[in-house]
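Quick one, probably user error.
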């Protein structure tokens, strides 16, 4: 093989290897602990859901990828197949809620009707407002 072909092949392989390494690092990166993070917005579940319902594009621009501290009353607690726990907070609309997803939580600690404050990253609105990587900030009886 000619030397310039060897150099070009080496450069392409090096770039591919660096790209794969970066992709793997991004894939396995742990999310930060939001229980200690400063929230971008402090809001109630009713107000958050209403803002998305009234003007989804404006609320999306304001809240998506932001850390929200949301207070409200628990409507349901469910455990998914992947051992995540979803806590749904009541909103003013019976067909919609704020769904907070926890990577690890004990679902037996929470029950419908409890007042709670949760911090999480807003990921959007699909009939429900979705918060990911959540952490309990405060639980009130």
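Nope, works fine. Designed sequence:
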């Amino acid at each position: 093989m000619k030397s310039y072909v060897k150099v070009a092949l080496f450069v392409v392989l090096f770039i591919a290897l660096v790209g794969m390494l970066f992709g793997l690092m991004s894939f396995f990166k742990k999310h930060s602990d939001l229980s200690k993070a400063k929230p971008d917005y402090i809001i109630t579940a009713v107000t958050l859901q209403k803002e998305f319902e009234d003007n989804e594009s404006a609320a999306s621009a304001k809240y998506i990828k932001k850390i929200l501290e949301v207070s409200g009353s628990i409507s349901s607690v469910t455990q998914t197949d992947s051992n995540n726990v979803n806590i749904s907070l009541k909103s003013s609309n019976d067909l919609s809620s704020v769904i907070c997803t926890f990577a690890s939580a004990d679902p037996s600690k929470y029950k419908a009707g409890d007042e709670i404050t949760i911090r999480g990253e807003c990921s959007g609105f699909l009939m429900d407002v979705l918060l990911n990587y959540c952490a309990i900030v405060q639980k009130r009886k």
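Residues 1-30 form one domain.
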